[in-house]
Amino acid sequence: MAESSRALERLQEELEKKAHAVYCYKCGRDVKPKVRLYPTLLGEIRVEYVCPYHGIVLLTETIEKMRLPDRKPYLVVGGAYIAFEGIDGAGKTYYAKWVVSELRKKGYDVIYVIEPYVKAIKEFLYKYDIDADAEVFIFAADRIILQKTIVLPALKQNKIVISDRSIYSSIVYQSIRGVSEEYIWGINRSIKVPEFVVILDLPVREALDRLRRTRDKLTKFEEEGFLLRARKKFLELPKKYSHISKFVIINTALPEEDVKKEILERVLEYLRTKGESGR
Questions:
Q1: CATH number of 80-277, picked from 3.40.50.300, 1.10.3720.10, 1.20.1740.10, 3.40.50.1240
Q2: What is the reported pLDDT for 156?
Q3: Is 99 helix (H, G, I), strand (E, B) or coil?
Q4: Cis-peptide into 194, omega within 30 deg
Q5: What would the pLDDT profile of 118-162 be if each residue is shown by its tens digit?
């Protein structure tokens, strides 16, 4: 890491020496620019030429590829990795835990996990207002810990993992805050992605009513405008990522028993299909 930082510093110095004068509209004349470098998750370096007097970007370019750590996706044969997704208040935790209970009654070996996994990380994320790109790193670190500690060992033992949230929550929530989905996938490039995703859908105002009945205070992710955008993005996931995971959308505004019946039927159908394809 230190060697990489020194290499960037040397490159910055070299580019500043070679930089030609660039016109600054605020100065009204050509100026010798300062250089800022931003490594991207695609392995490139983005260069910004900045006015030394006004700090505005005068010119940008993308240059050479950088070497990124070799992190290959986790490939695990066996078990089943199922995630419950949707906006807060849609019933993810309630229905995920209920499915775990029902599957155990039917003789399945099931474990339940939730993201964020590490309590201290969850408390940190909800306590401090940090930049969205930093959130991506923190959620990814938590996810790696969860997967290496619990998810991957369970799948290797042919267990069913029911997860309350997954990588797709990062895709939705951090992209709303301005981070590109490509960047989020890049940070999570070694993550085991859930094979089957149950998206629980509920109108935002009804979700907020449920949350207010059970909580004293809502988080920064539970404001109405934010949740409206999040709901829209969750409903777009099947169109964008059906080549990665299998999705179903279930309306949790329906009577609870109807919701439970449909969720269990869909999960059992997926498990039967997976079992038959693995024979």
A1: 3.40.50.300
A2: 94
A3: helix
A4: no
A5: 999 888 887 888 888 889 999 999 999 999 999 999 999 999 999
**Burial class of residue 221 in the structure, from the number of CB atoms within 10 Å of its CB (0-12 exposed, 13-18 middle, 19+ buried):** middle
262 contacts: CB under 8 Å, gap ≥ 6: 250, 254
- Which pairs with CB-CB distance under 8 Å and at least 24 residues apart come from 17-23? 19/49, 22/49, 22/58, 22/59, 23/58
Residue with tokens 């996990």: 113
Distance of CA 142 to the CA centre of its chain: 11
The reported pTM is: 0.74
Mean pLDDT of 95-102: 98
Residues of the chain with CATH 3.40.50.300: 80-277
b/e sequence 188-208, b meaning 16+ C-beta within 10 Å: bebbbbbbbbbbbbbbbeebb
Tens of pLDDT, residues 205-237: 999 988 888 776 766 667 788 899 999 999 999
Q: Where are the beta strands (DSSP E) in the chain?
A: 22-24, 29-31, 34-39, 44-50, 57-65, 80-85, 110-114, 160-164, 196-201, 246-251
Residue 177 DSSP symbol: T
148, two tokens: 């290496």
